[in-house]
Design brief:
The complex is a heterodimer of chains A (155) and B (668).
Chain A: H1 3-33, E1 34-38, H2 40-44, E2 54-60, E3 66-67, E4 73-79, E5 84-90, E6 102-109, E7 115-122, H3 131-140
Parallel strand pairs in A: 1-2, 5-7
Antiparallel strand pairs in A: 2-4, 2-6, 3-4, 4-5, 6-7
Chain B: H1 2-20, H2 23-30, H3 33-37, H4 39-62, H5 69-74, H6 81-86, H7 92-112, H8 119-143, H9 168-197, H10 202-233, H11 247-269, H12 273-295, H13 309-333, H14 348-380, E1 384-386, H15 388-408, H16 419-445, H17 450-474, H18 480-486, H19 489-514, E2 516-522, E3 527-530, E4 533-544, E5 548-559, E6 562-567, E7 570-574, E8 579-583, E9 585-587, E10 592-601, E11 607-615, H20 618-635, H21 638-658
Antiparallel strand pairs in B: 2-11, 3-4, 4-5, 5-6, 5-7, 7-8, 9-10, 10-11
Helix pairs in contact in B: 1-4, 1-8, 2-8, 4-7, 7-8, 7-9, 8-9, 8-13, 9-10, 9-12, 10-11, 10-20, 11-12, 11-14, 12-13, 14-15, 15-17, 16-17, 17-18, 17-19, 19-20
Classes of the chains: A alpha+beta (155), B alpha+beta (668).
Chain lengths: 155, 668
């Protein structure tokens, strides 16, 4: 083989190796780390088996927040106004976590149908509702005039 | 009346952009000197009108003109003056005006600092930038004019600036980030001008390099500022979240990093030409993608401007035309590009190629992880999220590989390096790195830690490699000092930036592995222990700020029973918007940060809070500062200035003959 051909082949092999390593790593990492999103109705209907990490999104039901007085354990109910799912979380809730507002929690459902959250995300802005929460409410057919916050165009 | 002048000024700038985007480009094509000469004054004119426009918007904020919709939505009469001023970029419309203004600033800079380039090239660069500015201003006027009024009944007071934005980080981060982002448009314009003119030589790379370095330096600082701000403002103790809006700047940064290395190779050796051009297009695409993602309302994130889909389609249009057009031009012209020289399998070129492959793969995987949920939703309608583990799983090994290469690359020679030479240079570096990496954690931690060991080996590999290289480069000189003076600015710039990588690596890794935190419920007098520190809640009191009310909790921190300091985290409620917000209390240190974020007060009177000890977290941003300094230093290298001096001398020798007796000025 001529030297310049060999060099070119070297470069191509080099790039191909890099690419296949990257693709392999990426696919492996993707498979491990995709979190599906479910609505309270789907979760209450038993669509998700326990032991799977996923996200649930809905509104925090009015009057459902119960805080333990001696620990950071919090329990609340997330709802799409059709089904309710209780959520337990130990830690500090985000600034904008409030009753009657949208919330997204990440974690697993336990055998008793309680969602054990490892992370709780609240919407970050007064006028803004998370697309996930909105989708959950729409899917449940909750009339948005009555319950959901209007999604205003400006942040 | 005054806000209408702002709109009017925008329209004038649009007209000038229309002229700049056509006449000089045609002039360069047809060889018409007069039309090419229009490029510089037109750029200056665009800058002036955009400056007027953004000043008028700032004036509307400062004078509380709530009849302007954008002001009414993002300000309040109680808002402190500095935030009224900076609320200009507190929402979509204003921040886009800032973005466009930044572009005009870069255009003005190109118009001024381009004396050493041929006129047709300058005309093409500014023409391309003019087209970009044209599309931006058109977008503003069509979908998001910041000067729109609320008629007929303006509100008596504004809705206030988002409380998370009332902070020094908000004053610094967006302008810096935008400036870096937009800087890559300049490098892009250089690449397009080179493609248009067919001039893909080393001179082109030499002209682009300082611009690419400066844009990269500013982007680095912009991202670091964002990370620092998120760290102390968002209150979860993290400095990077792989948030879909954090990722596009990172993608741009990764492409940009590949670009500055590839440009160096093109300038020095005349190889990788088409690859360099492609990287310039990719880096620019990354910046447009960032705009698109934040402004289209596609996703949920701390940064997203909730907005209507029209804007998304408009930006998608700009994105498609700019990227599609430039790639088409690239495809047409790339076969014309020929390498000026060859190189062997083991050579500096190969190491730079490895750097490029790794960085581009990293950028592509971040891109994939960012866009996959959106594509998935568009196709299946299902909602998914991809979390930090995905990004870490890919990014960490890639960066480790990059660091290994980074130690070898600068020591290797252009064209051909013998493996024996590399071994002779690096064997001692390797041994010392291994010894340091194993020994230091044993001494400091009294134990073995794989994470600390790997980190320290890699960091030492970089730092000792730099030391070995500097020693080798000064070895044949009379004295060390003389040898140092003989090295170029761009060499020091490179070593500085690489040193910054080592510093950041230590920060990132040690913070990630050795941070400790504890969430607790504390009453007055209660104590919690974390690491070697004890935190005692002393008292809490009500506070009244200019536009908020809240609680402040006083916490004493002691070590081994010895009182060290008092930290006072706050919890605020912003009156106008009713938004709660947490103010962290942080004691920053070179080796560790103490960090307290306050939760809520329970009915019992106890406060929930999380306390953190975060070792080496400052090193992350310190590393970024080193990198930015290095890139800036490299951009000021003599050889870029020499071009200008030479021009000036030529001009002066002409003018001296004209007016005798004038003292020649020295270019600094």
């Amino acid at each position: 083989m001529k030297p310049h051909r060999r060099k070119r082949l070297g470069i191509i092999v080099f790039i191909a190796m890099g690419l296949s390593l990257a693709i392999g790593l990426t696919l492996f990492a993707l498979r491990q780390n995709i979190n599906m999103f479910y609505t309270p109705t789907q979760v209450a209907g038993g669509e998700v088996s326990s032991g799977v990490n996923f996200r649930i999104g809905g509104m925090v039901k009015e009057g459902s927040i119960a805080e333990a007085q001696d620990s950071l354990m919090v329990q609340f109910v997330t709802t799409d106004y059709v089904s309710d799912v209780p959520v337990r979380y130990e830690g500090i809730l985000p600034d904008l976590f409030r009753e009657g507002q949208g919330v997204v929690a990440e974690g697993q459902i336990d055998a008793n149908g309680v969602f054990q959250a490892s992370k709780v995300l609240a919407k970050h802005d007064e006028n803004y509702m998370s697309a996930e929460v909105k989708a959950a409410l729409d899917a449940a057919g909750a009339s948005s005039e009555n319950h959901a916050l209007p999604v205003q165009p400006e942040s | 009346m005054i806000p209408e002048l702002g709109s009017f000024s925008l329209i004038l700038a649009l007209c000038l952009c229309g002229m700049l985007g056509t006449l000089p480009l045609y002039g360069a094509h047809a060889g018409n000197q007069v039309w090419m000469n229009l490029a510089r004054p037109l750029s200056a004119g665009i800058f002036v009108f955009l400056a007027i426009s953004i000043s008028i918007l700032a004036y509307a904020f400062v004078t509380d003109d709530f009849s302007v919709q954008f002001v009414a939505q993002h300000s309040n009469s109680l808002l402190p003056m500095r935030y009224k001023f900076t609320a200009v970029w507190g929402g979509h419309e204003g921040s886009f005006l800032l973005w466009t203004f930044m572009l005009a600033g870069w255009m003005l800079a190109v118009a001024i600092y381009s004396k050493s380039m041929p006129l047709d090239f300058v005309a093409r660069v500014l023409g391309v930038l003019g087209l970009l500015a044209f599309s931006y201003i058109l977008f503003m006027l069509a979908t998001s004019n910041p000067f729109d009024r609320i008629v007929p009944l303006p509100p008596s007071d504004g809705a206030d600036l988002n409380s998370a934005l009332q902070d020094i980080g908000f004053i610094l981060h967006p302008p810096t980030l935008y400036m870096g982002y937009v800087g890559f448009s300049v490098v892009f314009a250089f690449a397009i001008a080179a493609l248009l003119s067919g001039r893909m030589d080393a001179a082109w790379a030499r002209w682009s390099r300082p611009w690419a370095n400066v844009a990269w330096a500013i982007l680095t600082i912009g991202i670091a500022l964002g990370s620092w701000w998120a760290y102390y403002e968002l209150g979860w103790g993290g400095w990077w979240a792989w948030d879909p809006v954090e990722n596009p700047p990172l993608i741009t940064w990764l492409f940009g990093t590949a670009l500055i290395h590839s440009l160096a190779t093109t300038e020095k050796r005349g190889v990788f030409k088409s690859w360099t051009v492609l990287l310039a297009i990719l880096a620019f695409s990354g910046s447009l993608l960032g705009t698109f993602i934040t402004r289209s309302g596609l996703l949920t994130s701390v940064h997203a401007f909730a907005s209507d889909p029209d804007r998304g389609f408009f930006i998608l249009g700009i994105l498609g035309i700019a990227i599609g057009g430039s790639l088409l031009l690239f495809a047409l012209r790339a076969p014309m590009m020929k390498s000026d020289s060859g190189f062997e399998l083991v050579s500096r070129e190969m190491f730079l190629l490895a750097n490029n492959v790794i960085l581009v793969v990293a950028a592509a995987s971040v891109f994939l992880g960012t866009l996959f949920p959106m594509v998935y939703q568009a196709i299946t309608g299902g909602l998914i999220s991809i979390g930090p583990p995905y990004f870490n799983a890919i990014f960490v090994p890639l960066m480790m590989l990059l660091v290994v290469m980074l130690g070898i690359g600068p020591i290797s020679r252009w064209k051909k390096t013998s493996v024996g030479f590399l071994v002779s240079q690096l064997s001692r570096v390797l041994v010392f790195s291994l010894v340091l990496g194993v020994a230091l954690p044993l001494i400091v931690l009294f134990g073995f830690s794989l994470a600390a060991t790997v980190t320290l080996i890699l960091a030492a590999w970089i730092v000792l490699g730099i030391a070995a290289d500097i020693r080798a480069k000064t070895a044949n000189k009379e004295s060390f000092g003389k040898g140092l003076r003989g090295l170029s600015y761009s060499y020091f710039g490179m070593q500085f930036a690489h040193f910054g990588i080592a510093v950041m690596l230590v920060g990132v890794s040690l913070t990630s592995y050795f941070s400790i935190e504890r969430s607790v419920l504390l009453d007055a007098g209660d104590q919690v222990e974390l690491g070697e520190y004890e935190f005692t809640l002393v008292s809490s009191e009500r506070i009244n700020g200019p536009n908020y009310v809240g609680d402040a909790v006083t916490i004493n921190v002691s070590r081994d029973g010895e009182m060290m300091m008092t930290l006072v985290p706050e919890r605020r409620l912003y009156i106008a918007s009713g938004t709660p917000s947490t103010e962290m209390a942080i004691d920053a240190g070179f080796f560790r940060d103490l960090f307290i974020t306050l939760g809520e007060q329970r009915d019992s009177g106890a406060w929930s809070m999380t306390v953190y000890v975060k070792p080496f977290v400052r090193w992350i941003w310190l590393g970024a500062i080193f990198m930015a300094l290095g890139a800036t230093l490299a951009a000021t290298d003599k050889r870029y200035r020499r071009l200008r001096v030479r021009q000036k001398e030529k001009k002066q020798s002409n003018s001296i003959t004209a007016q005798l007796g004038s003292t020649p000025q020295v270019e600094t």
